[in-house]
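Key result, reporting period 2: structure in, sequence out.
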């Protein structure tokens, strides 16, 4: 009888822990889905999404003037630059900055 009594609380504890893990896992998945939706939202609003992508990925030595002009008027420029810095984008104009300009900015930010 004492064996049964000691086994029951352990089982209940395991159920509670498993439920907590499941809830935490579900919460993490929900957060990831929300984050992805927000991330995609700014990309859909970006002016570059409505423009010729070649302007944002010029050949080496090519002009970046047109892409930077478009970025200046873009309402999601900050989000774009933040994305590029976080994901270490090495090519193209992001948030109005070239790869070299983003590297310099990253160094200054530490």
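The corresponding designed sequence is given below.
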């Amino acid at each position: 009888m004492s064996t049964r009594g000691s086994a029951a609380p352990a089982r209940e504890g395991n159920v509670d822990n498993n439920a907590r893990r499941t809830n935490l896992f579900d919460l993490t998945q929900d957060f990831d889905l929300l984050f992805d939706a927000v991330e995609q939202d700014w990309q859909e609003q970006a002016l570059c999404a409505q423009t010729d992508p070649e302007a944002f990925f010029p050949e080496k030595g090519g002009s970046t003037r047109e892409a930077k002009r478009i970025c200046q008027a873009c309402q999601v420029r900050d989000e774009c630059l933040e994305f590029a810095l976080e994901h270490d984008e090495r090519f193209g104009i992001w948030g109005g900055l070239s790869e070299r300009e983003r590297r310099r900015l990253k160094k200054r930010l530490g």
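Residues 91 and 99 are 6 Å apart (CA to CA). Residues 2-45 form the longest helix (44 residues). This case is discussed further under Risks and Mitigation.
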